[in-house]
Design brief:
Structural class: alpha+beta
Strand content: 25-35%
Radius of gyration: 25 Å
Distance between the termini: 54 Å
Shape: globular
Number of helices: 19
Number of strands: 25
Largest sheet: 10 strands, mixed
Length: 607
């Protein structure tokens, strides 16, 4: 239901196998490829199934059956695995299991998730049996949404054609088609671009001549550019002709206001669109996560290329080839539809008062503490909301360095909701900062016991073990975190450091090199990995850390200084290491893991 990031649970990984696809007849196409020499085989594109789209839907939605009951199924390339919206789980009467301390992050923030159990899903002739998958709510009324979302994992081994103009989805199996265009409907006339398969499908586009990364998100009704990239292209809410674009909703309770601005050009493959009017907004405003430190945003894309693009194109995606083929079929690619701001369309949530909202979000710590205190003293909050509010105030006390007060608030939050694993992680970090190391590690262990599927909990314990100099205990935790969620460049870096400090430099280099091939080299902190592998030098790393936004630049430069200091330590250059680590201690925000790392390394060096 729009684009979202799986940050703290990774339960889409439960979908290890796709459907059982049954071809009714051997319908196929023989496609001409390059001349490969005598004995080369012809490419055959075999149609497996054809799914009619539900009429009058703006996105690719088909009919399905769950346990014999009808359900709408959205093919959502903006997500990796599968997710059942909470309203559907309630309506179908499915058995559900709490996932303690877990949630799904989206444009609207976080939605609490559960595990649902399905006996059988049928779409056309395709079947999936004995399935457990994540369920979460969408938008402010989280129990109202009522669909099943299928992501890229479902069609990783097949070719999927979106033919929205003809209201049809087609599933194919390509045989012996390496290097051959699969655009069977337009031989020699279709655009062809590479796709990167990560947690979703990424393509490169250009806006006003600037190359950016877009996620192909069939679950998003329309396309959006982030405010930052729009500003780079010279378009802001204050620009001439810009109008309100309406409230953008996704997973989580919040909404993001958008605008509509006119750009000079949009380019994808061989297709150039001139003077398009595209929605833009601060899409990832609420897409943050906090584990005992300053909220950070996951790695996100510059643009969502939504279903409006699919409605005006015929598109075939082959993950195995790493290609997307498309032809323009007609119509306005990016229709501009104004809308009302979020304050007019978001339902009033009885518990989500302004003070609770200010308390929960990032920002200046003292203001958050004051808002949290007003909300707690109001007497209007349920025990669950009180627990969330105490936890948020505890985080704010921690940012201010008042760890006794932070721990007291975490204690109360746990008393109110002892099954929330995240609170134990936050208390563990406060205890570490206070010097209570063993009880801090115990808190992380309790969080992992409550939710062993959460990669971030292993990550935080791995960080802490490193800071304590327990390198042999650190890298196994970081390895488990990466097993649960491979797309974590910081975990990759810290595992390398822990393995190197544990006397395993060959293993460290081998695994760092292996993991680096899966990451986008243009995204920070991947240049750090390139530096550690010897592919770029110190000056190139510092140059890569530069950023037009001052706050982002400060964070990236301090991280670069820390990791350069670690590199010098590994090479026994203690003076150079000390100078860089001292700069990192001075320049890094105190809630950054690199700040903790610099402090502990300097303390060890002083002994």
């Amino acid at each position: 239901m729009g684009h979202y990031q799986e940050m703290r649970c990774g339960l889409s990984l439960l979908m290890k196998t796709a459907f059982t696809f049954v071809a009714g007849t051997a319908i196929g196409f023989t496609l001409a490829g390059p001349v490969l020499g005598a004995g080369s085989q012809q490419c055959n594109l075999i149609k497996i199934d054809e799914w009619p789209l539900i009429p009058r839907q703006s996105r690719p939605v088909v009919d399905g059956m769950v346990n014999g009951q009808k359900i709408t199924v959205l093919l959502d390339t903006g997500m990796r695995g599968a997710l059942l919206e909470r309203g559907a789980a309630l309506r179908l009467g499915l058995t559900r299991q709490q996932l303690r301390g877990s949630g799904v992050l989206g444009i609207g923030g976080e939605s609490h998730s559960e595990l649902a159990f399905i006996d059988e899903l049928k779409i056309g002739r395709s079947v999936r049996k004995n399935w457990r998958l994540e369920t979460a709510g969408v938008g402010p009324n989280e129990d109202a949404s009522d669909s099943l979302l299928l992501g890229t994992e479902f069609f990783k081994d097949i070719e999927l054609e979106f033919d929205l103009p003809q209201k049809m989805l087609r599933l194919f199996q390509a045989k012996d088609c390496d290097g051959v265009s699969l655009a069977y409907w337009a031989p020699g006339a279709a655009s062809e671009i590479p796709i990167k398969v990560d947690s979703h499908l990424q393509v490169t586009v250009e806006i006003n001549g600037k190359r950016i990364t877009a996620v192909l998100d069939s679950g998003a009704t329309r396309s959006f550019v982030t405010s930052a990239e729009a500003a780079r292209a010279g378009v802001t809410p204050e620009s001439s002709g810009v109008i309100a674009g309406g409230c953008v909703l996704g997973f989580g309770r919040q909404g993001v206001d958008s605008w509509i601005g006119q750009f000079e050009t949009f380019v994808i493959g061989n297709e150039v669109i001139r003077n398009p009017k595209i929605h833009f907004g601060d899409l990832w405003k609420y897409t943050t996560y906090t584990v005992g430190r300053m909220p950070r945003r996951p790695i996100v894309e510059d643009m969502i290329l939504g279903a409006d693009f699919l409605r005006t194109h015929r598109v075939l995606i082959s993950q195995r080839q790493g290609k997307m083929y498309f032809t323009y079929t007609g119509g306005t690619v990016f229709p501009a539809r104004p809308g009302k701001p979020c304050e007019d369309v978001l339902p009033v949530l009885a518990q989500w008062t302004p003070d609770v909202a200010q308390c929960a979000k990032g920002g200046q710590a003292d203001a958050r503490i004051a808002a949290c205190t007003r909300a707690i003293m109001s007497g209007q909050l349920s025990s669950r909301t009180l627990s969330v509010t105490y936890n948020s105030r505890g985080n704010a006390w921690g940012i201010n360095g008042q760890y006794d007060k932070a721990i007291a608030d975490f204690d109360e939050a746990i008393r109110l909701n002892p099954q929330d694993a995240l609170i134990y992680v936050n208390r563990g970090h406060a205890r570490y900062r206070k010097g209570d190391n063993d009880v801090a590690i115990a808190d992380y262990g309790e969080a992992i016991r409550l939710n062993p599927l959460n990669a971030s909990y292993y990550l935080q314990r791995g960080y802490t073990q490193f800071w304590l100099g327990r390198f042999d205990a650190s890298w196994p935790d970081l390895t488990e975190s990466l097993r649960l969620n491979a797309n974590q460049p910081y975990a990759i870096i810290w595992r390398y450091l822990a393995q190197s400090r544990s006397g395993k430099p060959e293993l460290a280099n081998s695994e760092l090199s292996e993991k680096s091939g899966l990451l986008d080299k243009a995204k920070w902190p991947v240049p750090v990995i390139e530096f550690l592998l010897g592919k770029i030098d110190l000056d190139a790393l510092l140059k890569a850390a530069e950023h037009p936004d001052a706050e982002t630049r400060r964070g990236q430069v301090c991280e670069a200084e820390f990791y350069m200091g670690e590199w010098h330590l590994l090479n026994s250059r203690h003076k150079e290491a000390g100078d860089l680590l001292s700069r990192a201690e001075k320049n890094c925000p105190t809630a950054f893991v690199e700040y903790d790392g610099a402090v502990t390394e300097l303390r060890r060096m002083a002994k």
